[in-house]
Amino acid sequence: MATKDKLRQKLIKKINSLPEDELGYLDKFIVELENNIMSNSEILSFSGIFNDLDVEVFNDLTINLHNKRMQETQRI
After folding, report:
1. Is residue 8 part of a domain?
2. What's the half-sphere exposure (Cβ side, CA atoms, 13 Å) at 22?
3. What pTM value is reported for the model?
4. Over the stretch 1-34, which tens digit does the pLDDT of each residue have?
């Protein structure tokens, strides 16, 4: 916990020492960072969604996929 507090204080000091015209860039960066974190959590929300998937369907979507694509390519 102390490490987090030290890091926060260090960041606050750095922010306070920034020129005023740089604060806009920092704000945009933080917004982008927050958006990135949000999209990562949205992506991760799908993790485990296929746990209840039938084994045969899972194999068709993973193991057999390469073979199916090769067969379709040969037809053309």
Report:
1. no
2. 6
3. 0.46
4. 589 999 999 999 999 999 999 999 999 999 998 8
d(Cα 55, Cα 61) in Å, to the nearest integer? 10
The letter for the amino acid at 66 is: H
At 42-67, the pLDDT tens digits run 666 666 777 778 888 888 878 888 88
Q: Is residue 55 part of a domain?
A: yes
Backbone angles phi, psi at 58, to 5 degrees: -60, -45
Reading the block at residue 2, the tokens are 């102390």
Q: Which domain holds residue 57?
A: 21-75
Alpha-carbon distance of 30 to 32, in angstroms, equals 5
Amino acid in the structure at residue 9: Q
15 inside domain: no
